[in-house]
Amino acid sequence: MMKGFLMLCYMSSLFLLFPNLVFGSHNYGEALSKSFLFYEAQRSGYLPHDQRVQWRGNSGLNDGKASGVDLVGGYYDAGDNVKFGLPMAFTVTMMSWSIIEYGKQMSESGELSNAIDAVKWGTDYLLKAHPEPHVLYGEVGDGTTDHYCWQRPEDMTTSRAAYRIDPSRPGSDLAGETAAAMAAASIVFRNSNPAYAEELLTHAYQLFEFADKYRGKYDSSITVAQKYYRSVSGYADELLWAAAWLYKASNKPYYLNYLGENGDALGGTGWSMTEFGWDVKYAGVQTLAAKFLMQGNAGNHAAVFEKYQEKAENFMCACLGKGNQNIHKSPGGLIFRQRWNNMQFVTSASFLATVYSDYLASAGKSLKCASGPVSSPELLDFAKSQVDYLLGDNPRATSYMVGYGNNYPRQVHHRGSSIVSVKIDPTFVSCRGGYATWFNRKANDPNLLTGAIVGGPDAYDNFADQRDNYEQTEPATYNNAPLIGVLARLHGGQSEYSQLLPVAIPQPKPDPEQKATPAPATDITIEQKETTSWVRVGKTYYRYSAIVTNKSSKTLKNLKLSVSQLYGSLWGLSKYGDSYVFPAWINSLPAGKSLEFVYIHTANSPAVVSVSSYTLD
Known about the structure:
- The structure is a single chain.
- This protein is an alpha+beta fold.
- It has 18 helices and 14 strands.
- It has helices at residues 2-17, 28-41, 85-108, 112-128, 143-148, 172-188, 194-213, 218-221, 236-250, 253-262, 282-294, 302-320, 343-363, 376-391, 415-418, 433-439, 470-473, 477-492, and strands at residues 83-84, 136-140, 162-165, 367-369, 372-374, 524-536, 539-550, 556-564, 568-571, 574-576, 579-581, 588-589, 594-601, 608-616.
């Protein structure tokens, strides 16, 4: 009787403190589905035919042109129209890690194909941004001119200058993170698209070598990034992070030895962290290294990897409030790191806690904290508490995922969502006119940015849903990337297999509406040859001719070609989403006939051209 009375008093006091607090189960599957819609809203370039976020249109179609490189595509990082390479690459790494760990659960929920599409939209761009082994483009546009304007991506009049790193202007952090992204993504595509996976891994090898050989901070070379994505932690963590992912992707001892031999010098075994994100990767490195140790893969470096694991567990204990240096939490229980976009640290910490919980469970071990041992379910409960807070179990009963629940942010700091869709009103929105007409408008966004995770509340659970409150209402791609893994885990439960064994990512379920088939060699041939080359301003350009021939006895229709590793412009085909189709002047190719298209780019090797689909009539 007394126990029940005390519990009643406890619950009453809790509701007096937080009168709006509502406890309830959440639909993690719905939240997972909506997360991928956010990535479609962030797309730059030619949107594909199966684009689900219909209020967006094509944008940034000349990106890279002034520099003689094709940089069309990729993601806008947040509420602006700049493509920042460092956070974009981190986003791809974390989306890939989420799929690697929880692809089975995503497949069972029907979201694996959307997850893989989201990764590929990023990696297709990153491949373009790496036209030479020691050249990487790390930004398109700049924050200063972009933030001066409030325009839809489709109306952009701001600078689209492209900025790069190379041996004379190094950026080990940027190159290292991009190497990690490509290595992690190669695992995602290993079963479904092995040729693409191999291409990604080749670029990852080159980028790691570039990052390690020519050391330096990227924001010392791309100085326009300093005000927005300054590399405060330097590049040592990215070198270790890239090595960890390259080992996981390739199983090559070189990268395991790199982790073992450089852990102390590069800070991986010395720093106990209380954050993990696009800038500081140490906690992620330590978690991966701990996994390698539990898998029995540390080899001669077991003593070093034990130090990595010790630091990983310090991070987990800090999240739980059971360590020697704990992470601050709001009165409502949300971990709090900083005022500006705190939610990025919530989702990333929740992901690390989730995967480490599963690693411990698979190994039959518990977490060692200063206050005593902690079971793996308790660590997962922490991650769940953070996700539940994000989805509405908080003092304001507010969901910080746009479009989830009934009470969510309606005035998001986001150019595209805050301005009427170009498809509804194509009237040009000027640079400053956008501020006067749309930014200062005290009304809900005309376009729902479904799935976006905004910056979130302050240290005391306070939140103001106002468009000019960018610290709290601006979303970012790297907020969602770790969360998709946690949502998949919470929705699908723990897999029956050990999380320490190699995981085979299921094949994505085919689209039932896709009836066209890849081309047999007897139906269509593609022949390419270099026709000329020339030097301009110290750079060599190559012109290639490609001949597509219908070898079948029927008329070829609905041809879709995939063109990758193209570092320039193409003529003679029409762009359709992320594919190329017949030019406007023809709609079919009779039996025995050929079609020629040409392209000019800066690589001394032909682009990769393949047939995606077609029909024969």
